[in-house]
Design brief:
Length: about 120
Amino acid sequence: MEVQIFGIRKSAETRKALRFFAERRVRTHFVDLQVRAASPGELRRFVQRFGVEALLDRDGRRFADLGLQVARYSEDRWVERLAQEPLLLRMPLVRWGAKLTVGEAEAEWRRWVAGNQAPG
């Protein structure tokens, strides 16, 4: 079982996800979004499951700094913007096979680890 975690090191929620899986000896692949942006295709996977609103950190400082409170973008434009500006994302984005979570989702992660079955 390998879990892919998208986030930034400064994010408390991202660190919590990394710690959660490390404590359970689950192999993780961490993608630091400040070093390497998530691809639009990867972001679309999360958008298809949760919708673009679930990925936006509307309370975040970067969102306010860019003045996006009144922005009315299409879903594709938001995906482009999120790929360019990872600090607009709610973090972490966690993927295990076809299973996905946005933000802190410890209860769901516990189910994944407890089930420890093939993803899908």
